[in-house]
Specification:
The complex is a heterodimer.
Chain A lengths: L20 H24 L16 H7 L2 H34 E2 L3 H13 L2 H15 L13 H23 L4 H9 L4 H12 L1 H17 L2 H6 L7 H9 L5 H25 L2 H4 L9
Chain B lengths: L2 E2 L4 H29 L2 E4 L3 E4 L4 H6 L2 H33 L3 H16 L2 H12 L4 H19 L17 H25 L3 H9 L4 H12 L1 H16 L3 H7 L6 H10 L4 H38 L1
Antiparallel strand pairs in B: 2-3
Helix pairs in contact in B: 1-13, 3-7, 3-10, 4-7, 5-11, 7-10, 7-11, 8-9, 10-13, 12-13
């Protein structure tokens, strides 16, 4: 059992689980489980014929088909626009929420803090129906607004579920801020506002980038809440793909999905560059070690 | 030390204003309206009267819907259990990996997690279908075996029938494990990473085997992380809509699919609202329960240190 499976023929240390074969086999199996479906979809998006099992020949024709599918492209554009705008709003509001909770004592602080974590735990479906009812009865969103404004209700819904995540990420970063720096700025004559903008905000810069990447991904990823908010003319990429694949497998969706995965991988590497390893787990219930 | 809000009123209000407004107007109000609807009645096609009735909740506690709630909890529970069993060795391997391998392993786990949920579910659909990868590999093996048996003079097997992998509860569980596994691995890793390793070494030095050490030392020490991993997997699994919808078909509906149907198909918003709020309450109970357990674990830890 404890025989080393390395080239160096040094037996593994007591806790070097990674060098033991049962663990290695387990990791390989889990990796296959997580990646085979995705890789098979990506590989067969380049297949010449409409087949997801037999390789026939390399072809980009489904990519061609996907980029000439106007509805799909429009949905993709909607998704990116919504993600971009909701990210900007989420980062600003999320950072403000984090700062106010970090900097001030005020009555109702615990309640505000608790309320801020509700959007993180509430099931998506409940938030989805909330948004459906809200935009049907309380704030009816006119259907004839010019584009980007027509996406406004989806953007509002996306900000509601992503800004609390940004607040979590920014708060983790603020915990490492030395309050005396802000005091020093004020002693040297800076106003409260000035000290905030010139001392605190630069310190939380990296967490703003990490929070933005998180908000962008959450927005791009969301299906359920958008499904309940989107109208017939404001379809996003996941909603469009859903309507295309619900009953069958469509090769141009493979192609479009492959493009989306490529964007995701790129964004993940960007996040790694900006924040290091902690960016991977940001805002998902894992305390930051930095 | 935090400053009292009175000492910098204008800054306080300018920083608090926007997040508070957003949270109330675009989160609390929508959920509040749903909550009110859950006590309402349909009047005509689009009008809903708030009558303060409990009839919607009573309807939700009829055997049909109780059965769906029970089934949803079963599926979510089984998913969580499988994620824990599959994820624990992975988290353990990441924890004790050398620094460089650790980063790569984390990336390996997290990359699918950052990938679009719909795309992942679709990818799973495409390999599980009657013409999908799994059935083709199985068919290939079947035909190979059949040919071999014919060769040996035995009866050839009957023709391969594609397995019905999709549109049942097993498919939903498999899909949910596929989607939620990273949710479980992360909190497990983060607790295991903070564990005092000398205790493990002590246990191994004193003659306990790896399995014994795992169950008697590692698992008790990681109980807080296991708790939060269970919660963080169970809650999204319980309320999941997309996976049962795409992989489960009409026979394997979970509670979220029923809620969606009340709002989009059956047009019974008050009843859908009641179901939604039962799901919200179940979530809150889960969170509260986990908070209590975590508090107890922390207390035990503090006592252990004092003793």
């Amino acid at each position: 059992m404890t025989k080393a499976v390395t080239h160096k023929h040094v037996p593994p240390g007591p806790l070097e689980y990674l060098r033991r074969w049962p663990i290695q086999a387990w990791l390989v199996a889990v990796t296959l489980f997580l990646y085979v479906p995705l890789l098979s979809m990506m590989v067969f998006s380049f297949n010449d014929i409409k087949d997801t099992v037999v390789w026939h020949g390399f072809s980009l024709k489904y990519y061609d088909k996907a980029i000439h599918d106007d509805d799909l492209i429009q949905a993709f554009g909607n998704s990116l626009t919504i993600a971009l705008l909701s990210t900007i709003i989420s980062v600003v509001i999320g950072a403000m929420a984090a700062i106010v909770l970090w900097r001030f004592r005020f009555p109702g602080k615990t309640a505000f803090d608790g309320a801020l974590s509700i959007p993180i735990v509430v099931p998506e479906i409940c938030m989805g129906v909330g948004m459906l009812v809200f935009f049907a009865k309380v704030l009816p969103w006119p259907g004839n607004l010019p584009w980007p404004l027509s996406l406004g209700n989806i953007i509002i819904a996306h900000v509601s579920f992503s800004f609390p995540f940004v607040a979590v990420v920014v708060r983790a970063r603020l915990a490492s801020f030395n309050r005396e720096l802000e005091e020093a700025a004020k002693d040297l004559g800076a106003s409260d506002y000035r000290a905030m903008m010139d001392v605190v905000v630069p310190h939380i810069g990296p967490s703003l980038v990490a929070g933005a990447l998180l908000a962008f991904t959450l927005s791009l990823d969301d299906f359920v809440i958008t499904f309940f908010t989107a109208g017939p003319d404001t379809v996003t990429f996941p909603v469009k793909v859903y309507s295309m694949v619900r009953f069958s497998v469509t090769p141009e969706v493979n192609a479009a999905s492959t493009i989306l995965i490529a964007i995701t991988v790129l964004m993940t590497f960007l996040a790694l560059r900006f924040q290091g390893k902690s960016a991977l787990t940001a805002g998902h219930g894992v305390p930051d070690h930095t | 030390m935090e400053q009292s809000w009175r000492q910098a009123r204008s800054l306080f209000f300018s920083v608090l204003g926007a997040p508070l407004f957003w949270l109330v107007a675009f989160f609390m109000v929508p959920l509040g309206v749903v909550w009110l609807y859950s006590f309402g009645e349909n009047r005509g096609l689009i009008d809903i009267a708030f009558t303060g009735t409990w009839a919607n909740y009573a309807h939700a506690f009829t055997p049909l819907y109780l059965g769906i709630f029970w089934k949803s909890m079963w599926i979510a529970g089984l998913t969580t259990f499988l994620c824990l069993v599959i994820g624990f060795p992975v988290a353990l391997a990441i924890t004790f990996a050398p620094e460089k391998a650790k980063a790569w392993l984390l990336l390996l786990v997290m990359l699918p997690f950052w990938t679009n949920l719909l795309v992942r579910t679709y990818a799973l659909m495409s390999i599980m279908g009657a013409q999908g990868l799994i059935n083709n590999i199985a068919g290939f093996a079947w035909n190979g075996a059949s040919g071999l048996m014919a060769h040996m003079g035995l009866h050839a097997l009957p023709d391969f029938q594609p397995m019905q992998l999709m549109y049942n509860n097993n498919a939903v569980v498999l899909g949910l494990v596929f989607v939620n596994l990273p949710f479980m691995i992360l909190p497990l890793y983060s607790t295991l990473d903070r564990m005092d390793r000398s205790l493990l070494e002590a246990s191994l030095d004193l003659g306990a085997g790896h399995i014994q050490t795992l169950f008697n030392v590692v698992v008790p020490m990681a109980s807080a992380g296991i708790g939060s991993g269970i919660l963080i997997t169970f809650i999204p699994a319980l309320g999941s809509y997309l996976t049962p919808d795409m992989l489960g078909g009409s026979g394997a509906q979970m509670i979220a699919n029923v809620i969606e149907n009340q709002f989009k198909g059956a047009n019974n918003w008050p009843f859908g609202a009641a179901l939604s709020f039962i799901l919200v309450y179940m979530t809150f109970i889960g969170v509260a329960l986990q908070g209590v357990l975590e508090g107890q674990a922390r207390k035990r830890e503090a006592q252990g240190r004092a003793a």
